[in-house]
Amino acid sequence: MLEKIRGKYNLPSLAGAIIEGNQLVASGAVGVRKAGDPELVTVNDQYHLGSCTKAMTATLVALLVEQGKLRWNTTIGEIFPELVPRMDPSYRGVTVEQLLTHRGGVPADLSPGGLWARLWRQSGTPTQQRSVLVEGVLTTRPEAQPGTKFIYSNGGYAIAGAMAERVTGTPWEEMMRTMLFAPLHMGSAGFGAPGNAEAMNEPWGHTIKGGRITPVRPGRRADNPVAIAPAGRVHASMADWASFTALHLIGHQGKGSLLKPESFVKMHAPVGDYAMGWRVLHRPWGGQVLTHAGSNTMWYCVVWIAPEKNFAVLAATNAGGDRCDKATDEAAWALIQHYLNGEVGSRTGPGRGQ
């Protein structure tokens, strides 16, 4: 099923998974790790998750809220008092909840004033690199008055990650490993593009422009700057991504581990149609569903969770650009139908339309 879609869109590889409850019930991966190279992908290979990292950062914040180290209404001004004299006054009262729902006024584009270019040049620790982003954003005017407008912002999630670092004294990456990845047994999860340039041990990312497919050598330029990691730099195997997805699937049902039921209610409550790292939509085949896509322009992935039907699907490719969004959407829809038609898992009976 996946190979048919991969071939249709001429992708290097395509991977998919189906989750029922807290179990991975089907997975597959087809294609090659690098265009022009014969090394095939496997179901254990790692895929870059792009902005699907955002739900992970929101989950980390929820853990810190339960520990009493943050509140949902903790403000930027409280956490970074040394910046208050130079901070645009509108940012002082912005809460971590507003940042996680893209309502904090933080710009979508970080290039004005040369900030994005400066982030590429940074070489300090991840926390130090995020501090450059925090200061660069907060000392300029917000794109809109905080609380008034949805602005999808990687910068906002980076600031939320920096707030978590400040209250714990621990780098975001270390917190993710110890507080989220370890309890969920996500041994493959890491940061940046997977693999290395010396061995074809993991898929490489690719760009697709028109009919041209170009492999991207693993390394510093194979992902976005380290500063925005809380917004989109996690990679993982499909099985490990499924572990995180299952946490939210059963958590939405009030049966989740790691966090209290009220924390899942909070994270999944939309402001408009966006919650904390999830779009909340309605579909005839699933009722209220949670979804998100992720891409660093060299990879693309998508997740759909249907708590009312007790299942979720994942689809990912090691390419970004033209047609990758359509390909993963088509793969996800094929997996949804596969599940609803009773071809996998415990469900029986025909599915319903898109």
Could you characterize what this model shows?
There is one protein chain. The chain is built from 12 helices and 12 strands. The chain is an alpha+beta fold and 354 residues long. It has 2 domains: 2-55 and 179-340, Beta-lactamase; 74-170. The strands form 3 sheets. It has a 6-stranded antiparallel beta sheet with strand order 2-1-11-10-9-8, sandwiched between helices. Strands 3-7-4 form a 3-stranded antiparallel beta sheet.
Q: What fraction strand?
A: 15-25%
What name goes with the CATH superfamily of the largest domain? DD-peptidase/beta-lactamase superfamily
Strand order in the sheet with the most strands = 2-1-11-10-9-8
What would you call the structural class? alpha+beta
Shape-level CATH architecture of the largest domain: 3-Layer(aba) Sandwich
Query: Spans of 5+ residues with little confidence (pLDDT < 50)?
Result: 347-354
CATH class of the largest domain: Alpha Beta
Q: N-to-C terminal Cα separation, in Å?
A: 18 Å
**Average of per-residue pLDDT values:** 95
What is the N-to-C order of secondary-structure elements (H for helix, E for strand)? HEEEHHHHHHHEEEHEHHEEEEEH
Helix content, binned percent: 25-40%
Figure out the total of helices.
12
Query: How many domains make up the coordinates?
Result: 2
Blueprint (SSEs and pairs):
Blueprint: H1 2-9, E1 13-20, E2 23-31, E3 46-48, H2 53-66, H3 76-79, H4 96-100, H5 115-121, H6 126-138, H7 154-168, H8 172-181, E4 190-191, E5 205-209, E6 212-216, H9 229-232, E7 234-237, H10 238-252, H11 261-268, E8 279-283, E9 287-294, E10 300-306, E11 311-317, E12 320-321, H12 324-340
Parallel strand pairs: 5-12
Antiparallel strand pairs: 1-2, 1-11, 3-7, 4-7, 5-6, 8-9, 9-10, 10-11
Helix pairs in contact: 1-12, 2-7, 2-8, 5-6, 6-7
